[in-house]
Known about the structure:
Elements: E1 3-7, H1 10-14, E2 22-27, H2 47-56, E3 57-66, H3 72-82, E4 85-94, E5 108-115, E6 140-143, H4 188-191, H5 203-213, E7 219-222, H6 229-236, E8 240-245, H7 248-261
Amino acid sequence: MNYTIHTGDNRDILKTLADNSVDAVVTDPPYGINFLGKNWDADTGSLETYTECLRVLRPGGYILAFSAARTYHHLAITLERSGFEIRDQLMWLYATKMPRGNNLKGAHDPICMAVKGSPGPLNIDECRIPRETMRYPANGVTRHTYNESQADNWTGEYTVNDRGGYPHNVIGEVADYQKYFYCPRTTSEEKGDYNQHPTVKPVELMKYLIKLVTPVGGVVLDPFNGSGSTGIAATQLGMTYIGCELDPLHVETTHRRLREWATPTTHFEDLFECH
């Protein structure tokens, strides 16, 4: 496995990397919503961080960065100010529980797709979903929290008793997205009972995103490593991974998760279950 996890401020770490040395940046930065009242979630990442990401990314390379619905514009503006060109917005959709009070319950995380210079190719053919429809990837990625054993018979209709509840801020027939691909949530086993990170992304989700924007055997950078889902996904796909993480505890967690989960995968079509 070829990976490096740097401990410290990503602004300092990124300055040590060479120009045009990574093929893709796939990252889950802070959402800027003061999650759990934590200082680290005060913004969506600094202008300096993304300027350095642009410098180390090869020409034509992409950055995919998660955000929250209400702070996505901050992330997108910062990426534009750093020199990236916004190309698209992907959506990770998921079912949620009933809302409380007057607030809608979030049912999606937007993912900003931006590029350095003239856009390079996306791995569309490699990311086509197998099975009988052979559909092309869309800019929606679904996650549902119902029992996976129900998936084959699921119609997209929600009831009050469903574990997933209602997709409260998604309008339209969510079952249509099932025709593209189904991405399961992060399981407790995959996360690890020792993992203290509060927002662990599913490895399967990160695999799909990496595969979409990274050439075979490429170098993937995540300046907001967290507990290492991007790193696990990259190493399972045979990529080289570079992660930056401020919290030493999360770095330790990442190494443990990598030892447990970063077994190379050769059949990308097996990573997703399609209906």
